[in-house]
């Protein structure tokens, strides 16, 4: 949006935006007419200019800032405003058909009552620019969307690569970027080729055979793996955007009855870490990850130790958005709700699992020659069960559910005593029994990441509500 805000003037978009309902009785002025407000202002301006003698006018010259008085400034500004009004009048009277109306419109705005003018914030203009871009993409394809961004100078793909507009519909890049591995030393490349032999099972699981296996190897290499000077994060960045584009296109085309809020909820459900982690686990991408980090090993081990084999399969096929595992918070009871330390108990899927899915999507996109429809063909079976389930009843995350159930809840985040790198996130809900007695329940979670700790506290509150409070009156 920031780029659009900066560049919207290139196509003068604001003049075409309508953000106020047209009411002819109050807001409309017929062509060639001026409102009584404007006429009065012009008359007042004429009187001010006529009453200002040449000697007085010459005396109203800029003085050193220290010598300016409020009365002097008022006189100067009043005369300037009056002269400007008369300039507008003369400009409009003498405007020829061949002249641009831009200057006239700008000048006239100062003479039109506020009720007759639209007030547009930069976000209004940015949103309209995004809607125009969306229309271009929906009507002509996302490559033409890039052409539009070129025209308003947000991007410079054509200027940089000299790509013909027609060719832009085939390739975004002049040449598909190679894998980072292909740029390494010959010894590293030989090692990489030997590692690629172990990726056949991954290709079978994801349903795609790579023409250049280095893309897949890069997508499955962690920064801690010292034998190869590469990392999956660049492909993750690309894959995140590709996944968003594909899901947005599909939702927009398949759900014309959805409003923006419903489309956003469905998109968020499909691309959130919970859904991606289940996809990753089902495809077993984590088993092929190359890394050399004891800390990462402990994170993955602690997570998967939560499950027996059948439980892990059931979790992968669970089409809900529950982020907190029930077994991890079984100790929460009405009598006692202990403080939960995320360093000693795993209650969420590691973000790494979702990152791996996105990096593999980025690898497929580049290997397929930027054929985004080919990417959709490959990954749609991964997401179709979630899409079907979420479309029937768009899920809400625990935070939204608890906020709706307990509108008077309290939440706060405080530094953890004795360790300023940790935080305590607290969510407090309250109920009232038939004797009008209020009961409060505090869910405190300690973690190094504020948002994660708060999310876990909300998840615990939701599990607690379902188990103990579903039939209790809310305070």
Give your account of this protein's structure.
- There is one protein chain.
- A hairpin with a 5-residue loop joins β3 (419-432) and β4.
- This protein has helices spanning 2-7, 24-27, 36-51, 54-59, 70-93, 102-109, 122-140, 142-151, 157-161, 186-196, 200-206, 213-219, 233-254, 260-271, 273-283, 294-304, 309-317, 351-367, 372-392, 398-405, 450-469, and strands at residues 340-341, 410-416, 419-432, 438-447.
- It has a 4-stranded mixed beta sheet, covered by helices on one side.
- The protein is built from 21 helices and 4 strands.
- By secondary structure, the protein is of the alpha+beta class.
Please outline what is shown here:
The protein is of the alpha+beta class.
Question: What descriptors fit this protein?
Answer:
single chain, 475 residues, alpha+beta, four-stranded mixed beta sheet, extended, disordered N terminus
> Helix/strand/pairing class, anyone?
alpha+beta
Q: Alpha-carbon distance between the termini? A: 41 Å
On the 0 to 100 scale, the average pLDDT is 81
Strand content: 5-15%
Radius of gyration: 31 Å
How would the blueprint of this fold be written?
Layout: H1 2-7, H2 24-27, H3 36-51, H4 54-59, H5 70-93, H6 102-109, H7 122-140, H8 142-151, H9 157-161, H10 186-196, H11 200-206, H12 213-219, H13 233-254, H14 260-271, H15 273-283, H16 294-304, H17 309-317, E1 340-341, H18 351-367, H19 372-392, H20 398-405, E2 410-416, E3 419-432, E4 438-447, H21 450-469
Parallel strand pairs: 1-4
Antiparallel strand pairs: 2-3, 3-4
Helix pairs in contact: 3-5, 7-8, 10-12, 12-18, 13-14, 13-18, 15-17, 15-18, 20-21
């Amino acid at each position: 949006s920031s780029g659009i805000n900066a560049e919207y003037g290139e196509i003068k978009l604001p003049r075409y935006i309508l953000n106020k309902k047209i009411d002819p009785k109050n807001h409309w002025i017929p062509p060639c007419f001026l409102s009584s407000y404007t006429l009065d202002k012009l008359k007042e301006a004429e009187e001010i200019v006529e009453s200002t003698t040449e000697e007085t006018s010459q005396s109203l010259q800029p003085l050193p800032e220290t010598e300016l008085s409020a009365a002097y400034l008022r006189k100067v500004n009043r005369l300037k405003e009056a002269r400007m009004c008369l300039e507008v009048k003369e400009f409009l009277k003498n405007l020829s058909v061949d002249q641009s109306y831009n200057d006239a419109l700008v000048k006239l705005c100062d003479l039109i009552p506020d009720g007759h003018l639209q007030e547009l914030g930069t976000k209004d203009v940015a949103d309209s620019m995004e809607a125009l871009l969306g229309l271009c993409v929906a009507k002509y394809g996302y490559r033409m969307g890039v052409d539009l961004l070129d025209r308003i100078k947000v991007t410079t793909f054509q200027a940089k690569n000299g790509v013909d507009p027609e060719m832009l519909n085939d390739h975004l890049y002049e040449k598909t970027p190679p894998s980072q591995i292909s740029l390494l030393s010959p010894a590293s490349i030989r090692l990489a080729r030997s590692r690629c032999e172990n990726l056949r099972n991954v290709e079978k699981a994801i349903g795609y055979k790579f023409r250049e296996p280095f893309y897949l190897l890069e997508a499955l290499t962690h920064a801690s793996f010292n034998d190869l000077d590469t990392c999956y994060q660049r492909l993750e960045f690309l894959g995140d955007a590709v996944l968003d584009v594909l899901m947005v296109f599909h939702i927009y085309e398949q759900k014309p009855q959805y409003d923006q809020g419903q489309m956003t909820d469905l998109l968020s459900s499909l691309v959130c870490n919970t859904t991606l982690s289940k996809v990753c686990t089902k495809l077993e991408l984590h088993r092929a990850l190359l890394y050399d980090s004891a800390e990462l090993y402990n994170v993955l081990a602690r997570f998967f130790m939560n499950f027996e084999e059948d439980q892990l399969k059931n979790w992968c096929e669970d089409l809900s958005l529950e982020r907190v595992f029930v077994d991890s918070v079984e100790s929460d009871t009405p009598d006692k709700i202990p403080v939960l330390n995320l360093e000693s108990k795993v209650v969420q899927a590691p973000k790494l699992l979702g990152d791996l899915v996105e990096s593999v999507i980025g690898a497929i996109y580049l290997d397929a020659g930027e054929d985004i429809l080919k990417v959709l063909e490959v990954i749609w079976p991964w997401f179709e069960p979630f899409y079907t389930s979420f479309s029937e009843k768009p899920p809400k995350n625990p935070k939204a559910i608890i906020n709706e159930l307990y509108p008077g809840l309290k939440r706060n985040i405080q530094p953890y005593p004795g360790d300023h790198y940790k935080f305590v996130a607290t969510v407090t809900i309250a109920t009232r029994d038939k004797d009008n007695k209020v009961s409060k329940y505090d869910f405190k979670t300690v973690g190094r990441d504020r948002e994660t700790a708060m999310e876990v506290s909300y998840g615990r509150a939701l599990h607690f509500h379902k188990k103990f409070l579903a039939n209790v009156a809310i305070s």
